Amino acid sequence: MEDEGIENTNVTNLLSEEYNCGSDIVTAKVRNNQVALRIDGKASWKDIVSDVKMLFIVYDGLFLGKKLAIEWLDKLPTKEQSVELESLITGEFQVTIDKVNPRKQSVVTSSENTTNVWREKWSKNSGKSELVEVSENSDLIRLEKRDSHVSEYIDKISEMLEQPFDLSDDANCVLHVGTVRSGQRIETAHNLFILGDVNPGADLIAGGNIVVFGTLRGNAHAYAYSDEDINGFILALHFEPLQLRIGSLVYVGNRPVSDVANLASIKNKEIVVNPFSSKGRFEMKAKL
Amino acid sequence: MTAISIVITSGKGGVGKTTTVAGLGAALAVLGKKTLLIDADIGLRNLDVVMGLENRIVFNLVDVVKNQCKPNQAVIRSKKSTNLYLLPASQTDDKDVVNEQEMKDLIANYRDDFDYILIDSPAGIEQGFRNACSGADKAIVVTIPEVPAVRDADRVIGLLMAKDIEISLVINRVNKELMRRGDMLSPDDVVEVLGVEKLGMIPLDNEIIIAANIGEQVVFDKSSKTADYYFKIAKSLVGTDLDGVVYPEKEGVLARIGKKLGFAWAH
To answer: pLDDT tens, A6-38?
Structure first.
C-alpha cells in the first residue's frame, strides 16, 4: 500500500499496528512490515502443513511487501520437514522467506537450524562452546565457536539452579557468550542463557526462561510468546534491569543494586523479585 | 612509513571528539610523529576552528574525493608544528555526498606520507559515522562520565565490534570533585559497563575550553599541566617509552615517578 508522494515511513507509521491471524497451530503475527509465522511444533505435521496452506490461501495479500520469518514453538521440525515447508512457501505460494543471510534467518526463526547445529557440536567433554558474532544489519546476535571455559560456567549455573540445563536431544536453550550491548537484541523461542552482561538498551526476548550469568541492566522478556498461566523466571547474578516481562506481566526496575543473585518469578499474577540462593529456597518448575 | 588510521567517535554529540582529536594530534606531532587530522563531519565542520585554521581553507575533503584537486592541495599545515596537518571537511555539503568506499580511497592517498591519521567522526550512527569508520584501523571511543553518554558509547562500541575494529576508550571531562563526592560516575564505573580498555582520561578543565575557542591546543602551551593527559594518551598509542623523545619539561620528578608506578592522578 504505497501512495506516491507520501514517504514510506509515514505510511508505515499509520499502518503500524500489530495483529494476529491464523489458527491455533499456525499464527501469523504482523507488525509493521514484518510477518512472523509462528508454528506450534507439538502439533502433527499434517495439521501444520494444512494450516500453513490455509493461511497462505486465505490471507494471500498479507505477505505482500513484508519480510517473512518463521518461528517454531516448543518443538523443532526435522530437516526434511523444514525443507518441505520452506519449499512450499517459496514455491507454491511464491513468498520469499527473509534471507538476507541464511544463518541470520535461523536465529530469528527461533533457531531451528542453529539449535540443531549446537546440539551436534556442543559437547561438554570436549569443552567446545559457542561465541557470539554481532550482526550489524539487524542487531541480532549469532553464534560461532570459541574456548572451553564456558562449559565450566554452564555446570555452575546448573548447580545453582539445581536443575541441569539440558543440552541433550530434548534441549531447547540458546546460549550467548559475551556482553549484549545497547541496541542489540537476542530473540529465541526457547530458554536463553547469557554468559556476560546485558547493558541498558539491550533486549532479551525468549519463549522460555532467561538466565543472565552476569549483570542484567537491560530489558528481558521471558515467555514472550505465551499469555496464559505460566511459571517462568528470570535470573541474574547482578540484578538491575530497566524492565522485565514474563508473559504479559511487566516489572519496572527500581531495585537498588544488591550483592546477591536475584530471581524474578510469578506469584499471584504478579512478578516478584527475590534474592536467590542455590540452597533450594526456590522451586522452579520450568515448563520447557 | 605507513600510517595507522584511527577513527575518534562517540555516538553522543558534544562529548569532546573534536577537541580530543586536535589535542591528541598535537601531542603526537610534538612526539615526532607526522600526523594528519581528517575532519569527517561534513556539513558541520569544527576541527578547523579548533585548530585555528579556518581562514586558510582552500580545498576540502570533498574536493579531493570528487577529483577537483590533488590530495596534497587540500591538506593544511598547523601553525604550531611541522608534523601536524589538517584535511578539512566541506561546510556546504551533507553527509551523503561521500560514501564508504570513497572514504577508504581518500585515506589511502595519505597513508604513505604520515605516521598517524586521526579521523574526527561526526556524532550519530548513520552514514557520517559509517564513512568515518571505513578506512580506520583502530577506533577510540570518547565518552564523558554521564549516563546518557555511556549509553550511546555502548551502542557505538557494539557497532564497531561488528566491524572488527580494535577499540579503546578515552573518558573526557572527568570532574574529580564530583567523583570524590560520589555524585558522578568514575572512570572505573564507565569501564565496567563498557567493557573496553581505557586508553586514558582527560579532566574537565577550563584551559581546554578556552584554547578551543581561540583555535589553540593546550599541548602547545609549555606551562599547561593539562597537556600531560594528552601526552599520556599519545604515548600509549605510540607504545614507546621516553628514550629519543622530548619529554614535556613541565612534569616534575614526583609526577614522573608516580606515572611509572601507575598512579593515575600523579599530579
So the answer is: 333 433 334 455 677 877 788 887 877 778 888
Report in angstroms the alpha-carbon separations of B5 from B51, B133, B139, B262. 19, 10, 8, 28
What pLDDT digit, counting tens, does each position of A161-183 carry?
665 554 433 345 677 778 888 98
Which residue in the block uniquely carries the three cell numbers 520469499? A96
- In whole angstroms, what separates CA A251 from the centre of its chain? 19
Cα separation, A68 vs B137, in Å, equals 37
Q: How far is CA B255 from CA A113, B40, B220, B251, B259, in A?
A: 59, 36, 20, 6, 6
The owner of cell 497451530 is: A25
Q: Within 10 A of B13 (CB to CB), how many other CB atoms are there?
A: 13
- DSSP-derived letter for residue A268 is T
Q: In A202-253, which ranges are continuous DSSP H helix?
A: none
The answer to whether the CB atoms of B151 and A182 lie below 8 A apart is yes
- What distance, in Å, lies between the first and last C-alpha atoms of chain B? 35
Instruction: Please say whether the beta carbons of A185 and A136 come within 8 A.
Output: no
The percentage of chain A sitting over the pLDDT mark of 70, rounded to a whole number, equals 60
Quote the ipTM score.
0.73
> Across the interface, do B158 and A217 touch by the CB < 8 Å criterion?
no
Number of H helices, E strands in chain B: 11, 8
CB-CB neighbours of B206 under 10 Å: 8
- A200 vs B157: CB contact, 8 Å cut-off? no
CB of B151 less than 8 A from some CB of A: yes
- Side chain identity, residue A282: F
Contact list in B for residue A136 (CB cut-off 8 A) is: 159, 162-163
Spatial distance between the Cα atoms of A18 and B150, rounded to a whole number of angstroms: 32
Distance of CA A272 to the CA centre of its chain: 22
Q: Reply yes or no on whether the pLDDT at B134 is more than 90.
A: yes
**Among chain B residues, CA nearest to A218:** B151
Chain A nearest C-alpha distance from B189 (Å): 13
User: Are A184 and B157 within 8 A, CB to CB?
Assistant: no
Q: What is the pTM of this model?
A: 0.65
Cβ of residue B191 closer than 8 Å to a chain A Cβ = no
Whole-angstrom distance, CA of residue A200 vs CA of residue A286:
26
